Amino acid sequence: MSAFDSDGRLTVNTVTKKPKNTRGDYDVKWKFKLHSAHGEDGYIIQHVTYSAEVTDCFTSGVSIYADDYYEAWLVKSGSVMTTFNSDYDDNAGERHGTP
C-alpha cells in the first residue's frame, strides 16, 4: 500500500488472526474506523491497483493478474463506523486449493 490514509483520520485494523497458511492461501479482513464523527454522511473510498504473477506448483504454468478499481463504504452522520453490517469492512484472499 503506497498511499495509505495520508491525512491520518482513519484507523484500519486487521481482524484476521492468521492470514496465511503453508500452501500460500490467504484471507485477510480489515475493519475501518474514523478518528472522529462528522456532521454529514460521507464515504471511505479506496483505490486499488495490483498485479501478480502466479506460478502453479503442479504444472509450472504462469498466470498474470492485474486490476484497477475503486471501493466505497458509507459512514452515516455522527458515526465513526461504516454501515457495512459485519465484523469486517473489507477483505482480500486467494485460495489455491488442494492437489
Architecture overview:
By secondary structure, this protein is mainly β. It has one domain (10-86). Helices cover 0% and strands 47% of the residues. The chain is built from no helices and five strands. The protein has strands at 10-14, 26-34, 42-55, 62-75, 90-94. The strands form two sheets. Strands 1-2-5 form a three-stranded antiparallel beta sheet, with no helix packed on it. Strand 3 (42-55) and strand 4 (62-75) form a beta hairpin. It is elongated. The relative contact order is 0.28.
Provide a concise account of the structure shown.
Helix content is 0%, strand content 47%. The protein is mainly β and 99 residues long. A hairpin with a 6-residue loop joins strand 3 and strand 4 (62-75).
List keywords for this structure.
elongated; 99 residues; 3-stranded antiparallel β-sheet; mainly beta; single chain; two-stranded antiparallel ribbon
How is this fold's topology laid out?
Layout (H helix, E strand, L loop, with lengths): L9 E5 L11 E9 L7 E14 L6 E14 L14 E5 L5
Antiparallel strand pairs: 1-2, 2-5, 3-4
In N-to-C order, the SSE pattern is: EEEEE
- Secondary structural class: mainly beta
Q: Classify the helix fraction into a percent range.
A: under 10%
Proportion of beta-strand residues: over 45%
| Molecular shape | elongated
Unreliable spans: none
**Major sheet: size, sense and barrel closure?**
3 strands, antiparallel
Q: Distance between the terminal alpha carbons, to the nearest Å? A: 32 Å
Mean pLDDT: 80
Count of β-strands: 5
Instruction: Trace the largest sheet across and list its strands.
Output: 1-2-5
Radius of gyration: 17 Å
Q: Give the domain tally.
A: 1
Number of helices: 0
